[in-house]
């Protein structure tokens, strides 16, 4: 690896566009290549972002010996396939969430990364937001006492269209795996993996249109979480402790404000908000590590197990989706 970590971006959708913009803000990273199933799309994306190499197939990008790390931004259903292929090609991987649709597929990728000594991380940018990081520190310091309850929601209204990826089971659609993963990961950060998972919601065309979750932890601590494609949920979060509370008034997945026992804290966002996460990848790869302590393989597996339990409670399953 050269002094600058050389990235390849797989897919050219909205999230790839925003994250690539943030990647270009890092002085020790270079976006070297991009791929799309349609070469003209890859070429247009490359021209927009000043990327020197464009490929019409991700296999060609993975065969490029100059690419060090791959950012997987495909639809959910392809995450396991592309991540596995990238690791087999000797590339480090940052994969958009959810990193896989089943625990078995995620375990397969994690085991391969560890076996090959390659870095692999699920891209949950919330874990690297400076205010969320500060939340972890103040909770550890006892600022609000023992955490007893977490409330978090993420939802918006999206007109039903079976062709849209969020309404299409074959593309890994639904509110839980695309939006609900943020509240679940947020609760996991504070309370760990739950003992009990209750869920209630509605299915439309084989995917969940909305889902409410009650997660139960030892000693009575709990989390009330929600995701929706049919209601504009508040998108905030509250953490209740025995000595106080922390509020995220909006965008709990990328908060700009945090109120701790009535005192407001803010931060100046870098780029579109993905810079801290991308900086972490660069640092861990440079250090020769296979995972980030802020978003470990076990974290990803535990969150996915929780989502699978919630999904099963409403009859949602992605088994067999490829």
TrEMBL record:
<dbReference type="InterPro" id="IPR036291">
    <property type="entry name" value="NAD(P)-bd_dom_sf"/>
</dbReference>
<keyword id="KW-0560">Oxidoreductase</keyword>
<dbReference type="InterPro" id="IPR050984">
    <property type="entry name" value="Gfo/Idh/MocA_domain"/>
</dbReference>
<dbReference type="Pfam" id="PF22725">
    <property type="entry name" value="GFO_IDH_MocA_C3"/>
</dbReference>
<dbReference type="Pfam" id="PF01408">
    <property type="entry name" value="GFO_IDH_MocA"/>
</dbReference>
<comment type="similarity">
    <text>Belongs to the Gfo/Idh/MocA family.</text>
</comment>
<dbReference type="InterPro" id="IPR000683">
    <property type="entry name" value="Gfo/Idh/MocA-like_OxRdtase_N"/>
</dbReference>
<feature type="domain" description="GFO/IDH/MocA-like oxidoreductase">
    <location>
        <begin position="134"/>
        <end position="246"/>
    </location>
</feature>
<dbReference type="InterPro" id="IPR055170">
    <property type="entry name" value="GFO_IDH_MocA-like_dom"/>
</dbReference>
<protein>
    <submittedName>
        <fullName>Dehydrogenase</fullName>
    </submittedName>
</protein>
<feature type="domain" description="Gfo/Idh/MocA-like oxidoreductase N-terminal">
    <location>
        <begin position="5"/>
        <end position="121"/>
    </location>
</feature>
């Amino acid at each position: 690896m050269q002094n600058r970590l050389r990235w390849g971006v797989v897919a050219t959708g909205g999230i790839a566009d925003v994250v690539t913009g943030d990647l270009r803000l890092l002085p020790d990273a270079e976006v070297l290549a991009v791929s799309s199933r349609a070469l003209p799309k890859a070429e247009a994306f490359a021209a927009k972002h000043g990327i020197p190499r464009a490929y019409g197939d991700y296999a060609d990008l993975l065969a490029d010996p100059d690419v060090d790390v791959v950012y997987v931004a495909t639809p959910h259903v392809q995450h396991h396939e592309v991540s596995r292929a990238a690791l087999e090609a000797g590339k480090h991987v940052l994969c958009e969430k959810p990193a896989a649709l089943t625990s078995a597929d995620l375990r397969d990728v994690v085991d391969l990364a560890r076996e090959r000594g390659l870095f692999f991380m699920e891209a949950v940018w919330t874990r690297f937001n400076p205010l969320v990081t500060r939340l972890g520190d103040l909770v550890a310091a006892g600022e609000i006492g023992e955490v007893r309850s977490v409330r978090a929601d993420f939802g918006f209204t999206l007109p039903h269209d079976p062709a849209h990826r969020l309404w299409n089971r074959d593309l890994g659609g639904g509110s839980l795996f695309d939006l609900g993963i943020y509240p679940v990961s947020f609760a996991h950060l504070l309370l760990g993996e739950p003992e009990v998972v209750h869920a209630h919601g509605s299915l439309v065309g084989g995917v969940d249109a909305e889902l409410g979750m009650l997660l139960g932890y030892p000693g009575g601590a709990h989390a009330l979480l929600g995701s929706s494609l049919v209601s504009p949920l508040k998108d905030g979060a509250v953490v209740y402790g025995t000595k106080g509370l922390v509020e995220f008034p909006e965008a709990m997945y990328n908060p700009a404000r945090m109120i701790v026992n009535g005192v407001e804290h803010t931060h100046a966002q870098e780029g579109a908000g993905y810079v801290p996460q991308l900086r972490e990848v660069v640092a861990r790869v440079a250090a020769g590590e296979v995972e980030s302590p802020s978003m470990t393989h076990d974290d990803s597996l535990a969150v996915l197990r929780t989502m699978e339990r919630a999904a099963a409670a409403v009859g949602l399953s992605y088994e067999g989706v490829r």
